[in-house]
Fold this sequence. Notes:
- The structure holds two protein chains of two kinds.
- Chain A is of the alpha/beta class.
- Chain A has a domain at 2-104 and 172-230: P-loop containing nucleotide triphosphate hydrolases (Rossmann fold).
- Chain A has helices at residues 51-58, 81-88, 111-120, 127-140, 156-168, 191-202, 216-221, and strands spanning 2-3, 17-23, 31-35, 40-45, 66-71, 74-75, 91-94, 175-179, 206-211, 226-230.
- The longest helix of chain A is centred in the middle third of the chain and has 14 residues, at 127-140.
- The radius of gyration of chain A is 17 Å and the shape is globular.
- Residues 1-19 of chain B have low confidence and may be disordered.
- By secondary structure, chain B is mostly helical.
- The longest helix of chain B is centred in the first third of the chain and has 45 residues, at 26-70.
- Chain B has two domains: 2-66; 77-298, no CATH class.
- Chain B starts with a helix and ends with a helix.
- Chain B contains ten helices and no strands.
- In chain B, helix 2 crosses helix 7 (179-216), helix 5 packs across helix 8 (225-232) and helix 9 (235-261) packs antiparallel against helix 10 (269-298).
- Chain B has helices at 2-21, 26-70, 78-93, 96-121, 127-165, 168-174, 179-216, 225-232, 235-261, 269-298.
- Chain B is globular.
- Chain B is 86% helix and 0% strand.
- Chain A binds chain B through residues 52, 55-56, 59, 61, 84-91, 93, 95, 100-108, 113, 117-118, 120-123, 127, and chain B through 74, 77-80, 82, 159, 163, 166-168, 170-178, 181-182.
Amino acid sequence: xxxxxxxxxxxREGPVLELDGISVEPxxxxxxxxxxxxxxxxxxxxxxxxxxxxxxxxVGLDQPALGKVSFGGKAWEDMPEEEKEANRLSxxxxxxxxxxxxxxxxxxxxxxxxxxxxxxxxxxxPSAEWEGRLAELLRHFxxxxxxxxxxxxxxxxxxxxxxxxxxxxxxxxxxxxxxRPDYGLPVGLDMKLVDRxxxxxxxxxxxxxxxxxxxxxxxxxxxxxxxxTHLPSGLV
Amino acid sequence: MAESFRLDYCSCSRIAWRVQKNPxxxxxxxxxxxxxxxxxxxxxxxxxxxxxLGWLFYVMTMLYSFAVEVVRxxxxxxxxxDRLARQILFTGVEAAPFTILVAxxxxxxxxxxxLVWLRYTGQMEFLTEIVSALLVREASPFxxxxxxxxxxxxxxxxxxxxxxxSGQVALLESQGINLFRYLAVPRMLGLGLSVMVLSVIFATxxxxxSAIGFFMDSxxxxxxxxxxVFASLDVVDLFTLLGKSFxxxxxxxxxxxxxxxxxxxxxxxxxxxxxxxxxxxVSAGAFIxxxxxIFTFAL
Lengths: 236, 299
């Protein structure tokens, strides 16, 4: 794993997400990573990298084969279930197609229901509040409204844009995990997404962008970045 | 499990071989073999008992958690209410026409059987009492539960198992959504309410079918049918009907959620989970019926 020289300066606050010597699969070399509030970490990996397993580890659904994962300074394994749920509510996620989260959505709900599901299940978040944010996000991404169709009835591009809205909807948004967030879009890297991400970073959101290799131009478009590359061999 | 069967086979073959070789050793060999077998059977029984106790523990925990969650206002967020409405629509409303049809046949046939046998024994004065006891106390909750288990339990288990395998359950968890609150509570309550309402529909339609038979035969039988039915039923019967329908429905919901969400691995595990859920739902239903029956007679 190698780190870019253009590293954003870490915040004085503790890391939002800390991977301490973790190995997702037994036999892989362990690696460590800290993501501070407002930072963007670009994690580039090979196509066969077990990203779904990494997802489970990041959000505390699974334990790594080796090492420890902490969120907000506390290891996932030490948190009671309620605390885990509260922390996960502050994580926005975009899942790429073709991995373990195959559908990226619940099949038995429409796209619009899927997008607001986590917010509307949160009793601490009044509906008027997230409805305002939803309207603002729709305007930003130039969407008239969310699709009322089932996930398998919308185009990959529409599905991906709806995922962006779902990812940016939580408040507070402490961590944003974007896995190939422009996958399936005809335009490549979408500046609307980058703008929104920059705005989120300014308000203290840490961003973890998981992707295949990006061109230098695309990397520089993302702004100051901590850059990691996981080699195909699994070695650092 | 496979290892246990192998052990059984080995111990049986060993006895046979020793007895054949030296008949005088027959008694000793058989004793040892019996011990081996009983050990093996005992181990299997212990394993089964352990599985059963573990399963009972989980289901009881789910029922307890349900009781805690269902009275908490924060549980009833919009998606949970929507899910409950969909569950009632799917389990209760869509099953209602079929339940009415079955109730017509059952009500008619129960009445004819009672009529024939009571006339034969010369005890026609008990007709309405026996018909109402059979239909309201026993047949309605029993058959309504079976209809729901056959129609919805398998569908619910399959849906949850597929959600688990395709990563949708993990997707929910990763968004901080409480799985029990979102997936289990509305399904359990929906099944409980549906079975209860279907039981009442079943009892009503079956009694109406019996009444039709009664009126067709009224030149031979005297006395008002409905008067007799209502006179023979009391408050305990109402509680019996509710207990024998709502509780098995609730337990079926808990079992289906448990069996569906514990599936891991490939889609080949789904049919097994479905059959387990259906068998265990029937067993749990029968167990609850017996408990309610005991309480009914105690009252």
